Automatic annotation (TrEMBL):
Bilayer-spanning residue ranges: 34-55
Species the sequence originates in: Solanum chacoense (Chaco potato)
Keywords: Membrane, Transmembrane, Transmembrane helix
Top-rank taxon: Eukaryota
Protein name listed in UniProt: Putative ovule protein
The UniProt record lists the keyword Transmembrane helix: yes
Keyword Transmembrane: yes
């Protein structure tokens, strides 16, 4: 085998490895974005669900003790 052939084979192998790395990174990134979207949707649904049990306040800017803003952070712990 000539040295030229070995070098060419090695370069070809490196190109394949580089492509696989790029493809997997891209695939994982897409999956990660999708999972992030699902997770956010899940959190929003929990918030909407808990808001059903919120005590309505006369003043919208006032935090009620049983309000979603007080309850939800404790559920995350």
């Amino acid at each position: 085998m000539s040295v030229d052939y070995k070098a060419k084979k090695k370069e070809q192998g490196l190109q394949i490895v580089a492509f696989e790395g790029w493809y997997l990174r891209r695939k994982n990134f897409i999956v990660f974005k999708y999972m992030y979207f699902l997770e956010m949707t899940y959190h929003i649904l929990i918030v909407v669900f808990l808001m059903q049990f919120r005590i309505p306040s006369k003043n919208n800017f006032q935090l009620v003790e049983n309000s979603i803003f007080v309850t939800y952070p404790f559920l995350l712990i």
